[in-house]
């Protein structure tokens, strides 16, 4: 009695947990969007990207700051009492002029603006690729779930056939039990696949990173991965074509790398900085002038006298300190930037070559699944089902065939997803969303 009671309580707990997990999903409204809409949504509303774009506006303001003029000074000199006798009272202004400094500062700021703009473009591209990859992962997870649901229907058919043959006394009850076990087993796999879909959907929304209400969750428009090479606005190369050697397009691919272009821009920034630092040796000039007068009571002649004054000063003459350490550091920064540029090129070629090799491997696997495994396994499962109905084989063989078929279909889906995601990874290394490996234009 206690045993039955405990089983009843355990069953209630399982049902409650299932209902809570189910309601937690539907508490959020799922909004299906295409990949193109998802990319546009992310580029317009992604919080991290909006923050990065502010750096470009800051760099634009830095140009105005670097080109600023020094503000003038107004000064008054007034003598009181006997101290003023014979000395003029003065009202004037002074202005400091920087010599050969403003233009280099402005050029440095402009070079930094170009670098900031390249950084934002690189971030935009990375975000677009992240959206593509998480979108493909989400559709792939949904495809696997649909595949398992179809296999569940197939096992339900096996269970029905085994019960039918049991009623006809053609098989033993063990066939029904075995079919039921296989059906229960795939139910756990479906639960795992449902969790994988939820995880992939959350990863997709995490990449979008859009400020919105808590009740909105974006979902991929497609429910299954198609077998075509053009999918979700992703122009993947036709796997039936012979792929070119990496060397045939490596130079063209390298020219598109934003990180290489950024490293090259760092050299320009370092050179501009050397000019700015070197110009510190040039003194600045202060020019001043104004109006001076003597009142009657302060004038030696007892008459009101008036006139003007003018002068100039040289500031920051490089005698005691000649800025040698700053200039040396600026020269070392140029050498460092050049080495970083060479390193970026070397690493880029290795990354692109590795990503391309991985894509070729995914292509090989996909072709193998398409041309052999899928077609052969479909024929095999149909033959096994027919043999079981005709009494030529037992249910064990049929279940084994079903499990093999399921593994092959899931493997094919994963191979297809890898084909898409590995191409996306290659596009990452090329920093181009529409790179054509078959093009001969260099």
Reconstruct the topology from this structure.
Elements: H1 2-26, E1 29-33, H2 35-45, H3 47-66, E2 73-77, E3 89-97, H4 102-167, H5 173-208, E4 216-220, E5 230-231, E6 234-235, H6 250-255, H7 258-278, E7 284-294, E8 305-315, H8 324-389, H9 395-430
Parallel strand pairs: 1-4
Antiparallel strand pairs: 2-3, 3-7, 5-6, 7-8
Helix pairs in contact: 2-4, 3-4, 4-5, 4-7, 4-9, 7-8, 8-9
Task: Give a verbal description of the structure.
Strand 5 and strand 6 form a beta hairpin. The model is unreliable at 5-11 and 16-27 (pLDDT under 50). 65% of the residues lie in helices and 11% in strands. It has helices at 2-26, 35-45, 47-66, 102-167, 173-208, 250-255, 258-278, 324-389, 395-430; strands at residues 29-33, 73-77, 89-97, 216-220, 230-231, 234-235, 284-294, 305-315. The strands form three sheets. Strands 2-3-7-8 form a four-stranded antiparallel beta sheet, with no helix packed on it. Helix 2 packs antiparallel against helix 4 (102-167), helix 7 packs antiparallel against helix 8 and helix 8 (324-389) packs antiparallel against helix 9 (395-430). The protein has nine helices and eight strands. With 442 residues, the protein is of the alpha+beta class.
């Amino acid at each position: 009695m206690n045993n039955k009671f405990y089983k009843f309580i355990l069953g209630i707990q399982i049902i409650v947990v299932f209902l809570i997990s189910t309601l937690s999903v539907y508490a959020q409204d799922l909004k299906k969007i295409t990949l193109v809409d998802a990319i546009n949504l992310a580029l317009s509303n992604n919080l991290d990207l909006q923050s990065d774009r502010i750096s470009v506006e800051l760099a634009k303001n830095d140009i105005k700051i670097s080109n600023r003029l020094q503000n003038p000074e107004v000064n008054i000199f007034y003598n009181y009492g006997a101290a003023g006798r014979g000395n003029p009272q003065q009202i004037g202004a002074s202005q400091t002029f920087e010599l050969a400094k403003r233009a280099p500062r402005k050029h440095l700021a402009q070079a930094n603006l170009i670098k900031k703009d390249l950084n934002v473009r690189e971030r935009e591209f990375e975000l677009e690729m992240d959206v593509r990859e998480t979108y493909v992962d989400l559709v792939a997870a949904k495809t696997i779930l649909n595949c398992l649901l179809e296999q569940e229907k197939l096992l339900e058919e096996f269970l029905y056939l085994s019960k039918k043959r049991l009623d006809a006394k053609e098989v033993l009850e063990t066939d029904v039990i075995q079919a039921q076990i296989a059906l229960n087993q795939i139910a756990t796999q479906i639960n795992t696949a449902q969790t994988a879909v939820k995880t992939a959907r959350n990863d997709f929304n995490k990449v979008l990173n859009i400020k919105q209400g808590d009740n909105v969750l974006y979902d991929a428009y497609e429910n299954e991965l198609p077998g075509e090479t053009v999918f979700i606005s992703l122009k993947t190369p036709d796997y039936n074509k012979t792929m070119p050697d990496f060397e045939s397009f490596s130079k063209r691919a390298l020219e598109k790398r934003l990180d290489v272009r950024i490293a090259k821009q760092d050299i320009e920034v370092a050179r501009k900085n050397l000019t700015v630092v070197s110009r510190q040796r040039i003194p600045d000039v202060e020019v001043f002038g104004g109006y001076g007068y003597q009142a009657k009571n302060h004038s030696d002649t007892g008459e009101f006298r008036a006139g003007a004054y003018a002068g100039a000063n040289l500031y920051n003459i490089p005698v005691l300190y000649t800025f040698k350490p700053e200039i040396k550091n600026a020269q070392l920064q140029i050498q460092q930037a050049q080495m970083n540029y060479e390193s970026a090129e070397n690493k880029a070629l290795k990354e692109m070559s590795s990503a391309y090799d991985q894509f070729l491997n995914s292509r090989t696997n996909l072709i193998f699944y398409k041309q052999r495994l899928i077609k052969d396994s479909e024929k095999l499962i149909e033959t096994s089902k027919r043999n079981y109905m005709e009494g030529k084989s037992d249910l064990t063989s049929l279940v084994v065939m079903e499990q093999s078929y399921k593994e092959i279909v899931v493997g094919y889906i994963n191979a297809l997803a890898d084909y898409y995601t590995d191409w996306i990874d290659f596009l990452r290394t090329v920093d181009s969303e529409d790179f054509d490996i078959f093009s001969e234009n260099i």
